Amino acid sequence: MPARTVIVSGGAGGVGLAITQRFASEGHRVFVVEREAVRAHLDPHLSDRISFVAADVTDEASVVAAMGQVQQATGRLDVLVNVVGGYAAGQPISELAAATWDHMMNLNLRSAFLMAKHAVPPMIAHDWGRIINFSARAARDTAANAGAYAVSKAGVLALTEVQAKEVLAHNITVNAVLPSIVDTAANRTAMPDADFAHWPKAEEIAGVVAFLASEAAGLISGAGIPVYGRG
Q1: Per residue in 154-198, pLDDT tens?
Q2: Are the C-beta atoms of residues 157 and 115 closer than 8 Å to each other?
Q3: Distance, CA of 113 to CA of 28 (rounded, Å)
Q4: Residue 27 confidence (pLDDT) above 90
Q5: Contact between 108 and 152 (Cβ < 8 Å)
Q6: What is the distance, to the nearest Å, from the Cα of residue 128 to the centroid of all Cα atoms in its chain?
Q7: Across-strand partners of 81?
Q8: Which one, out of 4, 131, 148, 176, has a CA that is 20 to 30 A from the CA of 141?
């Protein structure tokens, strides 16, 4: 695949960092969009291909500015990976605070919507694009007391399916991956008694994302792909 311009929202930590470095290692120009101008622990051999853009992906004006910054730097946008998201659970629907519901919808669904919305015009301009959203296993395999999270991630699946139909004529694909618990340092700390061997690795998920962004995956669009590992 020729060198592409890639945006990874939430690309500075955990799974996002693995995705960022995978694309950079393949020779692509990667823009990491985070709320603050962070500097992740990057492979120094890849740092010249990675730039950081500060933006609030739940705010439309901020998203528009970030997209403009990327296009000003490279003149195009080819791949968008929406990794930004979060998890909140513990209460049944009857006790769930509206603020928690709104937080999950904003962080998981509104962010994906805004980034995907504003990624499409520059992709149409070059008649090629790849959008990969992050849903979650919980979107299909729901659990009690995680309603806001599950609904927000199910919304990401619906967003993926709808937009895939809208952009098909422009050689743009839109797909989603559905991770379970990923083997990251943060998750190991939060669940020290779990069997880490069954969790998918961040680098493995990055490989799936890289495939979906490739020319070889041009026939796949509107899919929700489980990446559960053996858990």
Answers
A1: 999 999 999 999 999 999 999 999 998 777 778 777 788 777 887
A2: no
A3: 24
A4: yes
A5: yes
A6: 19
A7: 8, 132
A8: 131
Residue 46 near residue 96 (C-beta atoms within 8 A): no
* Domain containing residue 61: 5-227
Q: With contact defined as beta carbons under 8 Å apart, do 31 and 216 qualify?
A: no
Instruction: Please give the average per-residue pLDDT across 212-225, as a whole number.
Output: 98
> Token digits for 109?
């669904």
Structure-block tokens of residue 205: 């998920």
Total domain count for the chain? 1
Task: Work out whether strand 50-54 and strand 79-82 pair parallel, antiparallel, or are unpaired.
Answer: unpaired
| Whole-number Cα distances in Å, 88 to 16, 108, 187 | 19, 11, 14
pLDDT higher than 80, residue 26: yes
Q: How far apart (Å, rounded) are the C-alpha atoms in residues 72 and 161?
A: 30
Residue 24: half-sphere exposure toward Cβ, Cα within 13 Å? 23
* Cα separation, 97 vs 91, whole angstroms: 9
Pairwise CA distance, residues 10 & 23, whole Å: 14
Q: Which of 104, 70, 77, 80 is nearest to 10 (CA)?
A: 80
H helices of the chain, in order, are 15-25, 60-74, 98-104, 111-125, 147-167, 185-190, 202-212
Look at residue 89 in the predicted model and tell me its pLDDT: 87
Q: How far apart are CA 150 and CA 140, in angstroms?
A: 8
Question: Which 8-state DSSP code applies to residue 200?
Answer: P
Q: Which residue has the tokens 């379970």?
A: 180
pTM assigned to the model: 0.94
- Going from the C-alpha of 199 to that of each of 10, 90, 191, 207, 210, the distances in angstroms are 20, 22, 12, 15, 19
